[in-house]
Design a protein that fits this description.
- The chain is mainly β and 93 residues long.
- It has a single domain, classed as Aspartate Aminotransferase, domain 1.
- It is 0% helix and 70% strand.
- It is built from no helices and 8 strands.
- The strands form 3 sheets. A 4-stranded antiparallel sheet has the order 5-6-7-8, with no helix packed on it.
- A hairpin with a 2-residue loop joins strand 2 and strand 3.
Length: 93
């Protein structure tokens, strides 16, 4: 935003202002857990999807993870997992 003007045919100082903001972008996700042995052995899966179309650019991101957890007692355990991220970027002229 900007403005200039005159007072009694005398130019006044120019005024300008700008602002920017960072906003969160939506991500669609899915998460699930399957219990193999009650309170001890679990399998977790998670998937997230994000897409953006802006100013001739199109891109998407797919993130997945698969984990296995074994709990010795209620809050102590070990786990093993695998995750992947897939980026797809297109520049449209």
């Amino acid at each position: 935003m900007g403005a200039t003007g005159t007072v009694n045919n005398t130019p006044t100082n120019a005024y300008s202002s700008s602002a920017s903001a960072t906003i969160p972008l939506p991500v669609v996700g899915l998460k699930g857990e399957y219990t193999i042995i009650k309170d001890s052995l679990f399998v977790n899966y998670k998937a997230d999807y994000f897409v953006l179309n802006y100013d001739g650019f199109t891109g998407s991101l797919i993130s997945t993870a698969l984990n296995v957890e074994y709990h010795f007692v209620e809050h102590v355990g070990v786990g093993l997992g695998c995750s992947s991220i897939l980026y797809i970027c297109l520049l449209i002229a």
